[in-house]
Amino acid sequence: MRRFVPVLLLLAGCSNPEPQPANDPIPQNKPEPKPEPKPEPEPTPKVETRGKLEAADAPEQTRAVGLIEQVTGRKFKTRVPVYVFSQEELEAEVKSWGDYAPENILGFYKYDTKAMYLVPEAAGNKRAFGLRLHEGTHALQDQLYDLAKLHKAVTTQDEDNTVTALIEGQAVQVMIDALPDNPHVKRITEVKQPTDLSDDGAWLRVLYYAYGAVFVQNLKERDGYEAVDAAFKALPKSTEQILHPEKYPAELPDRVSLPAELPWPAGFKSEASTTTGEFSVLVAMHRAGVTDPAGAAAGWGGDVEVTARKGASWITLRVTTWDTREDAQEYYDAMQGAPSLRVSRWNSADGEDGRRVSLVLADADVDAAALEALTEALARATVEYHK
Ligand SMILES: [Zn+2]
Predict the structure, then answer these.
(1) Residue 148 C-alpha to ligand 1 middle, in angstroms?
(2) Rounded to the nearest 5 degrees, what angle is found at the Cα of 147, between the Cα atoms of 146 and 148?
(3) Tens digit of each residue's pLDDT (9 = 90 or more) over 320-333
């Protein structure tokens, strides 16, 4: 569970036609420390000890709040405190976040204090108002939907990315709707890939801010912000739906389950399995240099992935399912050049229709025979196809 929603320097590093727009938010996809057990329903917000509390009637904030309410058609339940941080206070704050230390933060919203934070020295005056709209939208989302609860409910990497894309997508879209004359803000949604394809964080920013906002625009076309509100109450289930909004809410991923027992080599300890989602496949297809990465990834049906470690050694098993045999083969072929790929099987199980690909990735130290045994075991993964 995340406790804050930082806004980074926007889409810096993305292949934006213009040098970047407004603010870029941005979380990394990393596991949070286990949340403390949540006690009572309405915990009192923690008191902030850093920064300067802005006057409760600050005109810029009043204007931002008014615009957010006008755009979304939803009212704040309480006024959101705004703290202004200096660069030094920001550094001290980020230190307290432990190993989660994003760069280029312009502002953020924290769940535990229910306050928003601006760093004007970092943001500059021109960006400050967009930042208020963006972080203010997170505050409204928290009051209406409980952001901590939304993050806590996810069970896979794919679901975590999906809910984050909805949250960030709405915050970007509110900026776009509230600042219709600002071309930079609008341009966020045109980004389809980062400049540096090897940068995982930059890819996630593209998913959250650009694809997320396009998803929200699609909801708006159905029924304005009523449809956005409804999506927070019936969350999209997969990045497949974020990338292809027309698949929300009807199309669900195939459910792929690993066998209960896997023959890990001695000493290897397995982590929890997860689903990585179509978005991770899109990134992989870009990195593999396929001609039409989005088209190739679109055939994704579902996946399951698990990693085991022993000291510095690691093994990752990944089973993906595909809408058609051709989609599966395209992915299988593209992944042959993947770094660390040790074993791959297309159409692995008896009587299968060719829609499954199993990959075993590992560092060079791991014994080949052990990897073969794991590959055999992957044939026993079960799949519940959704179409
Ligand atoms: Zn944000």
Answers:
(1) 14
(2) 95
(3) 999 999 999 999 99
